[in-house]
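Whiteboard transcription, Tuesday session. T.W. wrote the structure tokens on the left side:
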């Protein structure tokens, strides 16, 4: 009796990361490649649970749109990943141009930097804004390097992804800051906005101090009563 044919398996390439056994740098860069996953599931979910800021929700929406665009381009261009490594990495059935990891990180870094420099993210000091704006960029360039080092992409593929991410990040920030921001008050006052406590704090110069002062005031008030 013949065995039934085995169905072809396909890996989820966003989390499917391999590195050469015994390669410490490769091991480190494999973790670097997972930064988009940490940002998506750790950063934005935590942000929604604890902050519920409209600017953060728009940020997350932009990243989702960026990744949809990435998949549409990949399925249209259908450029293969590096042939020398795709069989070993089990990614020959997926496409490599443009790199989604590079696009994600450059979109994230561009939007985050513009948000810091223009809106301030609740920090009033210009020097502090500039320092905070630089924070995601080392991870972005490390992610770009990791995808080439580990054999998942060619240099043109990661450059295409990073360029597209930068352009989409800047373009989406412009859309949010000049168009969507006008709808923030209506969203805050809507039934779902009130139910989920969705808010916009970008107009507050120093959100950390504002919340700290209000939290302390709320703590002291019962004692006075």
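and on the right, the sequence the group agreed on:
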């Amino acid at each position: 009796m013949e065995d039934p044919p085995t169905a072809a398996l396909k890996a989820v390439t966003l989390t499917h990361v391999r590195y050469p056994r015994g390669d410490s740098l490769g091991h480190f860069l494999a973790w670097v490649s997972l930064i988009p996953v940490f940002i998506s599931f750790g950063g934005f979910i935590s942000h929604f649970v604890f902050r519920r800021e409209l600017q953060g929700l728009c940020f997350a929406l932009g990243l989702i749109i960026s990744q949809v665009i990435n998949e549409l381009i990949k399925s249209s261009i259908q450029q293969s990943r590096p042939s020398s490594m795709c069989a070993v990495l089990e990614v020959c059935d997926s496409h490599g141009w443009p790199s989604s990891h590079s696009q994600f990180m450059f979109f994230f870094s561009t939007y985050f930097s513009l948000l810091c420099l223009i809106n301030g993210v609740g920090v009033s000091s210009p020097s502090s804004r500039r320092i905070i704006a630089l924070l995601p960029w080392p991870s972005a360039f490390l992610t770009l390097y990791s995808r080439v080092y580990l054999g998942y992409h060619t240099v043109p593929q990661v450059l295409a992804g990073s360029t597209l991410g930068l352009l989409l990040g800047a373009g989406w920030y412009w859309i949010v800051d000049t168009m969507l921001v006008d709808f923030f008050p209506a969203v805050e006052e809507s039934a779902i906005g009130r139910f989920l406590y969705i808010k916009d704090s970008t107009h507050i110069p120093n959100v950390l101090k504002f919340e700290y002062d209000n939290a302390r005031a709320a703590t002291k008030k019962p004692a006075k009563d």
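Someone added at the bottom: The two ends are 83 Å apart (CA to CA).
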